[in-house]
Write a structure and sequence with these properties.
single chain, about 550 residues, alpha/beta, Rossmann fold, 8-stranded mixed sheet, two-stranded antiparallel sheet, 14 helices, globular
Length: about 550
């Protein structure tokens, strides 16, 4: 009709009104068509969800029949307990009955969720139809956007609170479909609950392992290491093909080692030393990334994130970093038990950033810390978005260069944590604990006298000269003396121990203002988690929210 009018040659006031009205009606009809398409999709999705719930129920009932269990219409399960009877269900009938009852309940809950979802959506469309908004282009645009949201994963970098809202708006079936179809996105998306991320990342882990193994097997035989020529000094010349092959070989071998470490922890028997494990992130990009939680951070009362430093990757010492989370959970549990507190604890090993892989020159560069800021900030906010209720005590704990990463993030982005623990820090990018954006009394630091991190002196000439002066002042007993700090913050008496590291003021000097944790004086850079270390129980007390003894 619009085309007919436009080509009719009819002009004038009446023609103008008629054409405007017909065009308006065309727009309304197009909106109505789009709205009805959405109704159709909603009904089709509901039918699929009901069919899946029904299938789950039927499978449970079939298994019950096979196990000689009787399921009543109200879901009650009974069985023949007489061993001499032909219908005897066996000694393990009760355990089987409980498992099948749980499956029946899950199927019914699945159907109820689908019913609530389709009811809500149809009520929305019916309301649009009755009040006329269903013919409005702006309303249709919102409905189409909502539908798109149900079909697409939010892009990486989306605010975790928005991701959680999106996830909660999906049905169980839709959530499972996203996990199966897009595990790489769901598994690494902050704002998705821990259980779902774990399911997705276990898929990612196996796919990543297969891909790494395929690349490793495809490397071919090791090329000849040296060419049949000599350099200007008469020495051997390394074959470029060997150099490339060796680099790829070692990288793939290292990552496969890391994957095996993760696998071993995921399948370890759960006991006091090995809490349930959740894989919250995994990929093999670059040096690889992995986020592993000991206990579910969405349900634990106290949640701690551990950020390792130089060398952190999928491979290397990843197994040791994972063990440290287990040790910190155990230490927190001991602190809680001592206080008669039944609170639970989750400790997360966060290798979610590209850490420096060498002390010189990479660990001297702060670009790794700067590049990690958004990732760490988003992850910590994601923990709060997915936690069931408020986290009672939230701690960020870091070691070595990890403290630089944490310090930079707290300084530039802020982190929603109650405590920060800086272990063996080469500097956190700030001059004072208060610059981290939380109460300085909740900032803790530790550095053993025997820790080689003490060699990470300041790179700027002024700081380096100050360190050298203080070093010799301490050895010879001369220099600037002080007995404390006066009201104006000026040192009076004694030797000035203020010291600057490569990435800022040393976190254990009085001028930094942190609460100092006890250490083993002879301990080296990685000994803070050893059995004889007084730092480990102190870390546990901080994580558990208990006074440090």
């Amino acid at each position: 009709m619009v085309d007919r009018l436009n080509h009719s040659g009819w002009t004038g006031t009446a023609a103008g009104h008629a054409q405007a009205r017909i065009q308006f009606l065309g727009t309304e009809l197009q909106s109505a068509k789009q709205e009805l398409d959405l109704v159709s999709k909603a009904l089709a999705k509901a039918a699929e969800q009901f069919a899946q719930a029904q299938a789950h129920l039927v499978y449970a009932l079939d298994d019950a029949k096979t196990a000689k269990l009787n399921v009543a219409p109200d879901g009650t399960i009974t069985w023949d307990k007489e061993p001499t009877s032909a219908n005897y269900a066996g000694a393990g009938a009760e355990t089987t009955a409980i498992a099948i009852s749980n499956r029946i309940t899950a199927a019914l809950n699945e159907a109820a969720h689908a019913d609530q979802e389709i009811s809500a959506r149809l009520n929305h469309f019916a309301s649009n139809a009755s009040n006329g908004t269903g013919l409005d282009a702006a309303t249709i645009a919102k409905d189409l956007a909502a539908q798109t949201g149900r079909e697409q994963v939010p892009p990486a970098g989306t605010d975790p609170a928005g991701v959680k809202k999106w996830w909660d708006g999906l049905t169980d079936t839709e959530q499972q479909k996203f996990i199966q179809d897009h595990p790489d996105q769901i598994g690494n998306l902050d704002g998705v609950p821990a259980i779902a991320r774990d399911k997705a990342n276990r898929i990612n882990l196996q796919r990543g392992k297969q891909d790494l193994q395929r690349q490793f097997d495809g490397l071919g035989p090791e090329p000849k290491k040296y060419l049949n020529v000599a350099d200007t000094n008469g020495g051997p010349v390394e074959n470029p093909d060997y150099t490339v092959w060796k680099k790829k070989h070692d990288d793939l071998e290292d990552k496969l080692k890391g994957v095996k470490s993760i696998e071993a922890r995921l399948i370890a028997k759960v006991d006091d030393d090995h809490p349930p494990t959740f894989l919250l992130g995994f990929d093999t990009n670059g040096h690889g990334h992995a986020i592993i939680a000991a206990n579910n951070p969405d349900t634990a009362d106290n949640v701690s994130t551990y950020v390792p430093g130089t060398g952190a990757r999928v491979g290397g010492s990843l197994h040791s970093d994972i063990e440290r989370s287990d040790l910190m959970v155990a230490a927190a549990n001991k602190a809680n038990k001592k206080a008669g507190d039944p609170s639970t604890t989750s400790s997360i090993t966060w290798v979610g950033y590209d850490a420096p892989q060498s002390i010189i020159p990479e660990a001297a560069d702060d670009k790794y810390a700067k590049n990690a800021e958004d990732k760490l900030h988003r992850f910590e906010n994601g923990l709060h978005a997915t936690h069931q209720g408020k986290i009672a005590n939230n701690t960020i704990l870091a070691h070595s260069y990890g403290t630089t990463t944490v310090g930079y993030t707290m300084r530039d982005k802020g982190l929603p944590v109650d405590n920060v623990v800086l272990i063996a820090s080469p500097g956190a990018g700030v001059e004072h604990a208060k610059d981290l954006g939380i109460d300085p009394s909740r900032v803790y630091a530790a550095q053993s006298e025997g820790d080689s991190i003490g060699w990470a002196d300041a790179a700027d000439p002024k700081g380096m000269a100050k360190n050298i002066r203080d070093y010799y002042a301490e050895i010879w007993g001369v220099g600037s003396y002080y007995t404390g700090v006066d009201a104006n913050g000026v040192h009076v008496g004694g030797i000035d121990t203020d010291n600057h590291m490569i990435h800022g003021r040393q976190t254990t000097v009085p001028e930094f203002g942190a609460h100092i944790l006890p250490t083993n004086p002879k301990g080296d850079h990685s000994d803070y988690w050893n059995d004889d270390s007084p730092t480990l129980p102190a870390m546990g007390e901080v994580i558990a929210g208990k006074p440090v003894s």
